[in-house]
Structures are given as C-alpha cells and as structure tokens.
Specification:
homodimer; alpha/beta; N-(1-d-carboxylethyl)-l-norvaline Dehydrogenase, domain 2; 12 strands; globular
Chain lengths: ~300, ~300
C-alpha cells in the first residue's frame, strides 16, 4: 500500500519505519530541513525498544509529492492538524483513508472539514517515541494501536489497516469503542499531564501530594459530564481515578509530555484537552471551572515562559 | 504605653522600632535565637524607606517576660497566630488590647478563643518589610495602618492606638469598615499572590498573560459571594479587578510574598486566603471551585518542594 506519514516527528518516524520494514511503501512528510536532509543522506535510524536499525526512506515536503495515497497517518501536534490537512489535500483521493491517533479531543470534526467521514479512521495508541537527533528516533512500548471506523459501514476498511499494523509489529487492534479510549486518554492528559506541567513535578511527586484526590476529582467530573453529554460516553469517576493511579504507579518518576513541552518552550495541547472540555461544556450548559482554571493557568505559564502559541 | 510585639520578624521589628523611637515602651517577643542574640548585643537596626537607624530594644522569648501589657501587636504568619496566643497568654490582662494586622481571613474567630471581643482591634496595613540579617530589617512604604474596634463600644480604644501609630510615623487611620479592607487585601493575596507563587511569575509577567481576566474573575467572584454571605460585605467584581490591575501596575516586576515563601521553602498562607473561602463557602452552600483548585495546587506545590506544612 502507498502510505504517507503526515508529520514525521518521533511517533511518525517510528510508525513509518515499522510499516516500511514490513513491506509497505511509505512516504514520510515533514518540513524540518535538518531531518529531511539527514534521512535523505543516511536513511532513517530508529531504536525500537532499544534495538537499532536503519532504513532508506522517502521523505519530502508535502508539496514535493504527488499522487493519491491509500492511507495517510496524521501525526502532527493537535494544533497542527488543520494546517497539515490543507498541506496534504492534493494527496487525498476519494478512497484515501485518514488515520488519526492524535492526543486530545475534537479532531474528528477538524478532519470532517477536509474528508468524508467514511474515510476517517480514529484511534489511540500508547506507543511512546522520542527524537534523538535529525534522522534518528526511538519508539518504545508494545502498543496497542486501537482503531475504529468513524462511519458504521467502514469497519472492513478499518480492519484492513489494523491488520497492516499487526503485520508490521505495531500491535493493531480493532476497537468497538474508540471514543471511550480517546476520552480516557484525554482524561489522563488533562489531569496527570497538565498538573505535572503546571507544578513542574514528576508523576510520582504529583501523586504523593496530599491534595491529589481533590485535584483529580474536579477535573475528572467535568470530563465525565461532557463525555456523557457530547458522545454518550460513561466515565465512572472512581474507576477513572483508580485507573489514573494505576498508570501513575507504573510511570513513576517520568515527566509527562506536556511538562516536556513547557521545559522545551513549546506550546502545549491544553486547548485540545481541558480547553476542549470547557468549550463543549458551554455548549451543553455544563459548568467546568476546574478545566477552565487549568487551561487558563497553563496558558499563563506559556506566557510567563514566553512561548509563542500562535493564538 | 507598654507595648509588646508578638512575632518580631520583618514587620514586627519595623513597627516595634518606630513605636519605641517615638516614646513607647516596646518589648519584642520572638523565638529566633540568632535574632534575639544580635539585638541584645547590637540593638535593632531598621532601614525605614532607606534611612538606617539603630536602637537598643528589649527582646525576649514570651516565657521570659511577665506583667500585663497595654497593647500587644500580633505579627505572626497566619498559621502561627493560635500558637502565639497560647505563648503570650500570661501577658494579657482584662484591659490588654490585641491588635491584629495579619494577612488573611478568620483571625477574629481565632483571637476570640483567647480574649474578649472588646479587646480585639482588627486592621490592615500596606507597609512592607523584609529581614536583612538577624537584628537587621527594612520597612518600606507610607502606610496606612487602618484599625477598627471589633466591639461597637470600643471605638475610643481603637482611636487611642490609631493616634499612637500616627505619632510614631506609621500612618494610623481609623476605619469604619476594616472588614471590607480585610476582604480586599485577602482578594489581592488570593489572586495576585497565589497566582504568582503557582506560576513562578513576577506580577507584571502574570498580568501580561492573555488569560489574566479569566484567572482573576473566577477567584474574585467566589471571594465576593462568601464576603457577602459571611460578613455582608459587598465586593463589586469589576471594581475589584480594576483595583487589582492598578495595584499590579504599581508593583511591576515585584514577586509577592507567597512567591517568596515557596522560593524560600516556607509554607504559604493559602489556607487563610482561598482555603478560608472554600471552607466558608461550604458552610453557606456556595460553590468555590476556583478557590479550591488554587488551594489544592498551592498545597501540591508545597509538597513537590518538600515544604513541611505541619498539616
């Protein structure tokens, strides 16, 4: 299959590498010049759970590529999705499937402005990845990648991509409720991630705080209320808190990605997490003061750190 | 008059120095050994708006002093008031007036457990002060010190102390509504102070943030609702926001005291500001999620910084 990776950062390179290695015809798309040059000169080097390999790969700016793709994986930051969709528009045909594994909420709506819902496959993944240098990344974990068709008649198409991911060692799984896993992941990012970023704390430091339950409850309650109103998704507060604590105990002294964003002076995805909950809450007449305060505080922290958010 | 300063830190020393210099008989009370030793050996040195002077002063641990005082100024941190009242109990007679200029809410109730309301003079001040070294402090500003009797029949007593403060260059003023100024000051501390501490920001950095209005509104609304329910005090949100911005523009690149507390790894007074609002809100059936989140976040930050709060 002709597969494009729209946004070839850490996770995009990891996926592109595994797909290409296992027989797919992959084109990496990106705008980072040093990265493009390094891959063109030396191939793409990826360490998968510590095992390093190098492959020659095609990498280009979207406008340098032509022809309709079979599948495009979008791997931008949440705030970069809309712009990327305009940049890859010429690669999307009537049968091109767009696979979206982005963090955060509201991406289906963004994608529907560009492609028919029939061609949108939404998903989540718990693979993690990092950039080591231009042309060199790492991919860690053992999946899964959960996918589901956004249109009821497109299950077969989703399952084809699930199988490609399975065959490529990326642990694809067909999900009957990807909306739930998306909300659950957003809930993790909107609590653990946002709080660690704001407090400059590691996960275990955050969870050792005497106010942790109160800090989690307020946010989780609001995510649950909006998930119910908007997507008819049931989030049980106690179950979610239990899950959060279990995830936290596994991650220990790790700093989550939003903390790394602030540390590296990059804008965060807060508008697609707590901020998206605030926006949806308004629509449904729900109060979301905890998510509003978290969103405002993270934006204030971005401003204090003089991070350009483009807002 | 025999005046004791119960808690001779920066502000206590500044007040004690000015009172002693202008004819009062002042006893400084404290437990900080280096400070006591320095003042006993070399006197107390205070820079008042940059003008340095040294006076021999009496300083002692409370238990080393006996006899009833005419006036006792309490100058502890908010969380130290109750303990200090037990430590100075033997210096309080039936006519001893207690003057309380502490930051925060709820101190009248604490004091009433030890002395009759007739003898409690509540107040606020905008003098600022700092410790330079043991035995050496600075006092800055030009007041005022607003005082009001807590019992309607004790105005005369309050006015006597106001005049002493005036005569000592401390700019005493009789207030007809010290509850309002106390709430207003708590509102400043519960917004500007708490937010700068949490975000590790100077006042001008905080107020330059694009989310500043939303950050202030949520907290001010809750302070206003509780001030009304508990003390029948009217706080107008727009007026208060305007006042906050005006104060902020004067203070500029300054870091407020709660920021300094965290920076110096000391517990904050958040429980007597936003935390007191949360507690009172519960009593009156008012929602206070913004104050609750701020309180929880500041406590989480204290925990991350491994500050012992004694809670």
């Amino acid at each position: 299959m002709n597969i494009a990776i729209a946004g070839s950062g850490a996770l995009g390179c990891g996926f592109g590498y595994m797909l290409q290695k296992n027989g797919q015809n992959v084109t990496l798309l990106d705008y980072w010049e040093d990265h493009i040059e390094a891959i063109r000169n030396n191939g793409l080097t990826v360490s998968v759970n510590g095992v390093k390999g190098t492959l020659p790969m095609t990498i280009a700016r979207p406008e340098e590529v032509s022809g309709e793709m079979d599948v495009i994986f979008v791997f931008t930051k949440a705030m970069g999705l809309e712009k990327m969709m305009t940049q890859i528009n010429h690669l999307i045909g009537t049968k091109t499937k767009i696979v979206c594994l982005l963090n955060g909420l509201g991406h289906l709506k963004t994608l529907e402005a560009f492609v028919d819902r029939r061609n949108i496959i939404m998903g989540t993944t718990v693979w993690t990845a990092g950039i080591i240098a231009p042309g060199e990344t790492q991919l860690n974990g053992n999946g899964p990648v959960e996918l589901q068709n956004s249109h009821p008649e497109e299950e077969e198409a989703a399952r084809v991509i699930v199988n490609i991911l399975k065959d490529s060692g990326l642990f694809g799984e067909y999900s009957k409720n990807v909306k739930y896993t998306t909300w659950r992941k957003a809930c993790i990012n909107g609590t653990m991630n946002a709080l660690c970023a704001l407090l400059d704390a590691s996960i275990d430091q955050l969870f050792a705080s005497p106010s942790i339950d109160s800090l989690l409850n307020g946010i989780v309650d609001e995510f649950a209320a909006v998930a119910k109103a908007q997507d008819d998704i049931e989030i049980d507060r106690d179950e979610m808190i239990h899950y959060l604590k279990e995830v936290a105990s596994r991650l220990g002294s790790h700093y989550p990605s939003m903390h790394q964003d602030l540390f590296n002076r990059r804008p965060t995805e807060i508008d697609y997490l707590n901020g998206a909950v605030v926006e949806a809450a308004e629509k449904y007449g729900i109060e979301a003061p905890h998510c509003r305060r978290m969103t405002d505080l993270i934006h204030a922290k971005e401003a204090v750190l003089e991070i350009k958010t483009g807002r």
